[in-house]
Amino acid sequence: MLKQVVRAGMGSRSAFLPVLFVFIGLCFTPGGAHSAEDFYGSLKQKLVQDGFSRQEVANTFQCVPPPMFRLVSQTMKIREGQVNYDHFLAPSEIETAREFIADHRDCFRRAEAAYGVEPEIIAAIFLVETHFGAYTGKTPTLAIFSTFAIMNAKANRDKVWKLLSPLDRKKWSRQAFDTKLIGRSGWAYRELSALLELKNTHGIQPGSLKGSVMGAIGWPQFLPSSLVKFGADGKGYGRIDLFNAEDAIFSTANYLRGHGWCEAKFASDREAVIWDYNHSKAYVRVVLGIAERIRGDAVRN
Questions:
Q1: What are 3-50's pLDDT values in tens digits?
Q2: Which residues, including other chains, have CB under 8 Å from residue 9's CB and lie 6 or more apart?
Q3: Pairing of the two strands 139-140 and 210-211
Q4: Quick one: which of 149, 177, 204, 206 has the fewest CB in 10 Å?
Q5: What phi, psi does 218 have (nearest 5°)?
Q6: What's the CA gap between 60 and 64, in Å, rounded?
Q7: Helices (H) and strands (E) in the chain, counts
Q8: Are 146 and 192 in contact (CB under 8 A)?
Q9: CA gap 83, 289 in Å, rounded
Q10: What are the φ/ψ torsions at residue 210 (nearest 5 degrees)?
């Protein structure tokens, strides 16, 4: 599902930050003279303590780059509420969404039969999140979650703090900054654990994934925890690939059903479901507006 946003508690989705990486330089900075092993040692130990095999953890971190401190500092500058999505309501964008539905009509029909979710809302989400897979992000997923996960250590937060501009430091205050990154550390560790679980259950190699600066992946920009819970095989090949339209459609339909879309009778109910996908009022308004416009066009045509 950011999807998106940096959520309170970071638990709902993917989310979600659909356009955040457009504004951020996608680069990672080596942590001085230290190796990645130095920085990730305690993180790897915690994963082993929590049930992952020592060999599995060692193999996963074998090629992880040094912590992405500079990129973490960049995420402290963007506020999801400031993102403007209105350009997605342009007639040309609505037409693109309608064409996507037409091109995948059979898949949408099967997904609706299985989950009870109509094509228009799924297409609206794909349009805003990644423009139907056109920009899914280039940030190494394993590296960014690992970096956020080690923000529980003050020494690592200090490195990020020094990378902020004086103005950003003033806006945050050190106490608020520490509180935010400590919270993200716990969230990132849970997502990192889900990422390793995906390797065991779906054969997904964590080191091969790239996505948003907050770790969201695929067309719908799911976080790993959402993929674990709501990932669905639309192709029938026995594996799930969110960079594939059919799997993305089925998985998003499953997510929306799981968050109450099929029971949403009133506008406020539908708004609440999309808010779960991305904690942004602007996002909610535009996604529902896109779906409404697609339906309106469908009626006329």
A1: 433 333 344 454 444 444 434 443 444 443 345 557 999 999 999 999
A2: 183, 187
A3: antiparallel
A4: 177
A5: 80, 180
A6: 8
A7: 15, 2
A8: yes
A9: 16
A10: -135, 145
If you search the block for the tokens 């949408």, which residue do you land on?
108
Domain segments of the chain: what residues?
A: 20-300
| Residues in Cβ contact with 109 at an 8 Å cutoff, skipping those fewer than 6 apart | none
**Residue 9: CA count within 13 A, CB half-sphere:** 4
Mean pLDDT score, 256-278: 97
Q: How far is CA 239 from the centre of its chain?
A: 20
Neighbour tally for 205: CB within 10 Å: 13
Give the integer Cα–Cα distance in Å for 197 and 12.
18
Residue type, 169: R
| Band of pLDDT at residue 202, cut at 50, 70 and 90 | confident
Compute the distance between CA of residue 259 and CA of residue 117 in angstroms, rounded to an integer: 11
| Per-residue pLDDT reduced to its tens digit, 105-136 | 999 999 999 999 999 999 999 999 999 999 99
Q: What is the pLDDT of residue 13?
A: 53
Q: How far is CA 285 from CA 85, 124, 137, in A?
A: 9, 11, 24
Mean pLDDT to the nearest integer, 137-149: 97
Q: Are 277 and 1 in contact (CB under 8 A)?
A: yes
This model's pTM is above 0.70 = yes
Cα angle, residue 71 at apex, residues 69 and 74 outer, rounded to 5°: 115
From 272, 269, 299, 274, select the one nearest 286 (Cα to Cα). 274
Neighbouring C-beta atoms of residue 72, cutoff 10 Å: 25
> Is residue 63 very low, low, confident or very high in pLDDT (cuts 50, 70, 90)?
confident
186: its two tokens? 């716990």
Tokens at residue 266, please? Answer: 């009133």
φ/ψ of 79, rounded to 5, equals -115, 125
pLDDT tens column, 215-247: 999 999 999 999 999 999 999 988 899 999 999
